[in-house]
Amino acid sequence: MPPVPLNFVQCDDMTMNAETVPLTSSSMEVDTQTTSTSAPDSNIETTTHTNTSVSSDGVTTTVITTTIVMTPRRAPHKPPTMASSGLVKAATPPPSLITDANRKGNLIGEKRNPPHTFLTPSRRVRPLQRSPSQLLRLRRASPSKSPPCASTAPMRLLSCVYQKYAWGKKGAASSAGNMVTAASRAHQSIGLAESFELPADVPVAEMWMGTHPSGMSKVLDGEYGVIGLKEYVQSDPATHLGSDDGETNDITFLFKVLSIGQVLSIQAHPDKHLAVRLHAARPSLYKDPNHKPEMAIALTDDTSALMGFRPMPEIYEHMLEYKEFAKAVGSRAVAMCASLASKSAGYGAAVGGMELDRQVDESRSFSALSEMFRTFVGQERNEFVISQVHALTSRLRKSWEENTLDRENELVKLILYLATIYPDDPCVLSPLFFNYVQLKRGQALYIRTNEPHAYISGELLECMATSDNVVRVGLTPKVKDTDTLLDMLTYRAGRPRLTFGERVDHCTTLYRPPVEDFCVETLEVMAGDSYDVEAVPSPSILLCYDGKGILKQTFGTSGETKELSVSFGMSVFISANTTLEILAEGEAISIARAMSNVYG
């Protein structure tokens, strides 16, 4: 006979299970009873299973299993509030399956039916949770999916804004520009908008998808005409956002495509408290009172950036190797870094998410890096620092011309590149103390608030909290706010963490940062296949960044069906709790989906 079934439950950090009592071959089952009771209007049910057996030697064994099951009455999810085309293809790295046994919260793909939990009065009850690897195994075991349920609102085509920043690529070299142009042609072909062509000499740095007033997307639809996306979601926030808080009623994320022609400024983004103060004091420069954590996902293999302070031993090593750098930061900073370099060969536990590995002695590291960076970019010694920058770059350039330098030295090449654009900027030497990060296609980098960084090259997707607040200090002709940036930085040293995301199933990769404002899925559907996009309690923006296909949706109580043909550069807004199907009929299609971080 089979063993008596186990009761397996999970409560908080404690796992409890009833021991299996098998019926052996020498025993005989004589009586089995099962009773279930539940109180009226209660969500608690008790089931008692009694199994009596008699062994060959006359011993009677009775096994009684009692299961108490509660179906939680959950309140509706409320999202966080706050105020091929033109893409240069590169080889896709092999999928990386990343698991995190310590991460809490529901993961993508998990059904949101009320789960069974064990009722224990003294402990907080939480549902069973699955890791990404468990989720992937379940999807592989059950590839067929039930038809999507009816959605609450139809999907809407978006017309998006582009930004002509000087650092952007020009003409056909810009993926952002190619997407804007391709989308306008597609909109014209279905009679929704006029087509336009971007001049070849105009730098197209970014394409924005969202509700920020500096680049508001517009909804294209015959029913509404052309209206701003924020006006559209606020017309019915309960439907489009999943809740109505009566205040902000806005999307929590801003989605972008970046095409980087030359290095961006050395910058940082404020946290919420600082953003409120900056916006109140200088609203013309700091456009909103929101924080701006962000995440970049590389679309090409040539994507690179400067991110966070290097580990202390590397900074001190560069001070010894490049005497001009040591003179520029001053003897006090050199001494402080030297005292820490010998003690920080190892690193402490990771901070979490895709962030920096934190050094052991944080207070002393903070003091040393603050002294070094303030001396380096402050105004007191500006002329002397620039003279050392000139001396070092001249020496490196001469050695390069005389072929006495290693021409594969990425650090030297980067310094000389920066010197050709901003020869009189101290931050030309920033690669000596900031991490130089090179990303492959599909690799992501998360950037916390108050962390220094600068994108250098490449094509990338970028998702962030809905904000345009940037505090700059160098490598830019724009307004610099040096004092604010020096005061806001965390001065943490360590190596940035990169990730290829969490491979959820054969089509979906999830990138989720440690903030609630946003996360991103990339969906790759092969030619001839289809894929059901599951509903989430957050609005979403979908961007087709390669290929073409059809989005199919059933919505409303009447079961009405809507289809949209989408191709490279086109973007679509879908309301919260909305499903759709992706059909890749003639060729494969690649779609990126941005939304609030409903997975924790």
Identify the CATH architecture of the domain at 132-151 and 503-595.
Sandwich
Overall 3D form? elongated
* Rg (CA only): 29 Å
Beta content comes to 25-35%
Q: What percent of the residues sit in helical stretches (DSSP H or I)? A: 10-25%
The CATH topology of the domain at 132-151 and 503-595 corresponds to Jelly Rolls
- The termini sit apart by 43 Å
By CATH reckoning, the class of the domain at 132-151 and 503-595 would read Mainly Beta
Mean pLDDT figure: 79
The secondary structure category is: alpha+beta
Poorly predicted regions are 1-30, 38-44, 67-85, 88-148, 344-360
CATH superfamily placement of the domain at 132-151 and 503-595: Jelly Rolls
Q: Biggest sheet: strands, sense, closure? A: 12 strands, antiparallel
Condensed summary:
The chain contains 12 helices and 30 strands. By secondary structure, the chain is of the alpha+beta class.
Summarize the structure in words:
Belongs to the mannose-6-phosphate isomerase type 1 family. It catalyses: D-mannose 6-phosphate = D-fructose 6-phosphate. InterPro entries: Man6P_Isoase-1 (IPR001250), Mannose-6-P_Isomerase (IPR016305), Pmannose_isomerase-type1_CS (IPR018050), PMI_typeI_C (IPR046456), PMI_typeI_cat (IPR046457), RmlC-like_jellyroll (IPR014710), RmlC_Cupin_sf (IPR011051). Among the domains are: 8-70; 132-151 and 503-595, Jelly Rolls; 312-409, no CATH class. Helix content is 22%, strand content 29%. The chain is built from twelve helices and 30 strands. Strands 6, 11, 12, 22, 23, 24, 25, 26, 27, 28, 29 and 30 form a twelve-stranded antiparallel beta sheet that branches. Strands 7, 10, 13, 15, 16, 17, 18, 19 and 21 form a nine-stranded antiparallel beta sheet that branches. Strands 3-4-5 form a three-stranded antiparallel beta sheet, with no helix packed on it. A hairpin with a 3-residue loop joins strand 11 and strand 12 (225-228). The model is unreliable at 1-30, 38-44, 67-85, 88-148 and 344-360 (pLDDT under 50).
